[in-house]
Amino acid sequence: MPMISPKLACAIFTDVTRDASLPLRPEALLKTKSHHLRCHGHVLVGDVALRLYKHKGPWQYDERDVRRAARDLSAMTVEHNDLVKVVLPGQRWREESSTEDEDARGRANWRGQIAGWMYHEALDKELARDRLYTERSERARIGENGLPGELTWEDFVSVRDGSGSASTIAGTYPLELFTRSDGRWWLPRTYVDLLDRWEALEEKLLERARVCSRCRARGPRWSGWRTPTKTGYVTMCPPCSGAEFAAYTGHLRGVPYGQMRARKLRADDYLCRLCQSSRASVWDHCHGHDLVRGPVCASCNTFEGKGIPELLLRREEVVAHLLECSRCREERALPPRFHAAIAGLHLEADARHTSCPVQPHVRHQGTTTSGHVFDLYCDRHWPKMWKEEVPAAEAHMLVRAFVDRALAAGQPGAGVPGPRAASDTNART
Question: Is the whole-model pTM more than 0.85?
């Protein structure tokens, strides 16, 4: 079959859909590193799923699929006079969303996505103007223009129009078709039906990708069972992966990374040390000490190397993996990029706005020669913001304490830095 690169696929799709009445954004075909591609192996444009294939490394499309999808979507006619009312959901707070089960989180929901954009931009506008609401319900209140807070449609479109794929759904740009009349939001019926079909197709693909290709067992929704192969990702449950790939036992701890090629040991002979469910693809190593940590799959390698440090430190398996570097264990240390995160977790556990029981939000603002500087704000009392600095020497001690607790517990990552000594507690404003 005629295989083409994502760049050529995007160019072909753009040319074929040049006169389409749908607000298509063909750049969606370039998103070959998206989370959903890893989960189900397709890029969705409208209600069409385009499968990607691996051929000697890079992802590729079947040109016939691209042209067929472009013709089908280009043939759709959007009747701007045939409108349907669109009801957007209200904002959901962190504690409410945390009670959802795994299957409910992250479902395809185009109405929820658009509403989320609105609330995000309303909050950003208030933060930029240093005008913070006393109660969070105020910033979420919908005005007569149908937008939260003091957000205007002009502000909303101006910001979102320049945010590229962050403002697209199913490879389309919904804000181009939105209208407001009689105090309600409206969209063309054809387009609403298209997005509803996209939701159903996304869910169907995700559900299919949960099934082990060997034993047909049903796995987690955001498939931790996906493993890379030369032709793309396949789903294999941990027992099936364990039967096919060897488990890494830590036998290379302390080996310099530069010696791995001479030893001729292949990472893809092993299970990923981090997720324990996918085939490994590379040998991960500590860049500070140049020592091997273990075999990891491409996804976990990216997650560990580029993930948000604060989130990584909450994962026991990640801290365990970082401490596979024998020098880090001996020195009771972690890579420098985690030092500010440990200091931030410490403040999150200890700092409070006066007697408020709610943990504050902690945002790292920068690192100086003297230490790490953070902004803190209370989720219940928005005007109450303050700054704190964790001195470099204290941050170093916090890192050692974090590693000591992790190693002592035998489950690295189980401990989060606790409160400071009373003599070092800063006044809260």
Answer: no
